[in-house]
Amino acid sequence: APDESAKLATLVRPSVTMVLNHYCAELKFFDVPGFSLSGKVYPFCLTSVGTGFFISEDGLLATNGHIVKNLPKSALYYGISSKKLDPLLTDFLGVYFSQINKRELTSDEIKQKVNEAHTNKEVLYQVGGLIADLNQKNILKFQNETNEYYLQIGNDAAEITTTGVKEGPGVIKAKLVDMDYQEPNEKTGFTSSDVA
């Protein structure tokens, strides 16, 4: 007898597709008197990938909310760990270690600190946490956030470039209709369903 799971996989495979979210934003330091990074802006882009499945013949697709929405803390960590936010990391570590050492660091010393952060995940997460605190205190804010959505409907892999996702015969642009996904509350946890 044929394997029932193989039959099921064959039946649902055409309805499952790759979902890509190309997210761009800017992080801006608000004006704080005496703060050397006041007003500086750091643009960056990230592309996240997940799966979804078609739920209607007219092209409606269901996926997870975390695929189509970038929460601030996650965007910061992915931006820092992927080196997309290295200009921010460089400036932040320069100010941070200059205050600790009570002197201005040279550009070579700052580069070394950035390299050390990238080679030690624990240090990178600690620095990311410090930067996330600045966001929570409204000193560093997200602005000009955009999302572009794509579906990989063919067998050819989607091409992710520095400017986004390349459309082609097997990769089409999509539109977000609705979602239920919010940042978890520190006390009560998730209050949304993670559905899009």
Q: Percentage of helical residues? A: 25-40%
Strand element count: 7
Structural class: alpha+beta
Multimer state:
single chain
Short key terms for the protein model shown above:
alpha+beta, 196 residues, 7 strands
If you had to describe this structure to a student in words, what would you say it looks like?
With 196 residues, this protein is an alpha+beta fold. It is 35% helix and 28% strand. It is built from 6 helices and 7 strands. The protein has helices at 4-12, 65-68, 72-81, 86-101, 107-119, 121-136; strands spanning 16-29, 41-54, 61-63, 140-152, 159-161, 164-166, 171-174. The strands form 2 sheets. Strands 3-2-1-4-7 form a 5-stranded antiparallel sheet. A hairpin with a 6-residue loop joins strand 2 and strand 3. Helix 4 packs across helix 5 and helix 5 (107-119) crosses helix 6. It is elongated. The chain starts with a helix and ends in a 22-residue tail after the last strand.
